[in-house]
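As described in the Methods, two query proteins were run sequentially through the folding procedure within a single session, without resetting any intermediate state between them. The first query and its resulting structure tokens are shown here.
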Amino acid sequence: MDWIVRPARHTDEHKVIEAIRSLCTELRGKDVKLPEIAADVFQSIISNTIPGAVFIAETTDGNLIGCATVFIQEVIFRGGSYALIQELWVHPSHRSLSLGAALVRSVEEFCREHSLKRLKVCLPHESFVNFNKTQKFYGRIGFADNGPYMTKMVSMDLK
């Protein structure tokens, strides 16, 4: 089956949101509902209100089979910007067909266009059933281990 990778358009919203929902469901091992604002975030990226991009992989008949989101981050200790792949998903029936690597190549081209020399990716939690496969995939396409990330939810209660 033939496929292409291209930048997402406004009209791809529903397909991309469903792909990201599928990614989150797979990572968490249970059905996930994305917040309503997810569509607004997608549209803000496409409109360049949020610095980044969304790329999709689709079959020649228009079925979405993969997507990647990349965001530009500013950091003082690096003295400027870098790119962060936040989400990368390939439909299970299309994995191991170089689709993920093609999506990352599109992200790399985005980096070159924006003079971003550093590209990072968020790995899933080590308890994710396919963590080792995910880590090996990124290693095969040139990523190096960069240590774990930690997360804290900030309370919105001002008390």
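Immediately afterward, the second query was submitted; its sequence and tokens are:
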Amino acid sequence: MSAVPAAPTGTLDPDERRRVVRKSVSVALATGTYGLSFGALSVAAGLSVVQTQALSLLLFSGGSQFAFVGLLAAGPAGAGAAIATSTLLGVRNALYGLQVSRMLGARGLRRAAAAQLTIDESTAVAVAQPGRAAARVGFWTTGVGIYLLWNLMTLVGALVGHTMGDPRRYGLDAAAAAAFCALLWPRLKSADAFAIAAVAALTAVLIAPHAPAGVPVLVAAGTALLAGLSRRTHHDPTPPHHWSDPADGGTR
């Protein structure tokens, strides 16, 4: 990767901080509310309210949580698909950690907290920021916001889920997808970027009816990566996240 000028790592001005916080809160609201669906489905699969809440508090990985309750609901016949899905999602979060750890530079308890909060949304908001300070605010605000709301809505779903009927009819999963599209759209600034995003989206749509939850997203990401590698000449703008890193002389 070619070196780019390092962005200042100081504190943010108030206007920039408010912009990042607004984006983070909107993503947290769209995603955290989906915990309602998990709480309802978990109790319907046979877990108690306490067990359901423990999964959200300790595991805090939406895709893996849904895969786990899907395994309980399907019985032994669905074990292979559920285990494979959870494993792939775990690998995905580990890759996120490689990116996020350099950005945050956290140590001790903050590092443990960052590991718990490293999910799709917190990582996406962070890497969309132009500098390290904004990225840190985006990561922590999004991660903490989703964690609190996801656990609150998990509890609500577990307690009143039996009165809701099928929670999927409320379209909460669409809200989370819309938040991701809002993060992605500003970065599609070239024909190559649009084409790769379109191919990845089409791949996910075609695979979704035939694969466990979470797998279409992973396959789409792999498709986008292969498409990007196949093009030796790109005209995309420089990625916005220019975080300085003392380990390599202050540039990245």
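Residues 6 and 244 are 5 Å apart (CA to CA). We note this only descriptively and draw no conclusion about the first query from it.
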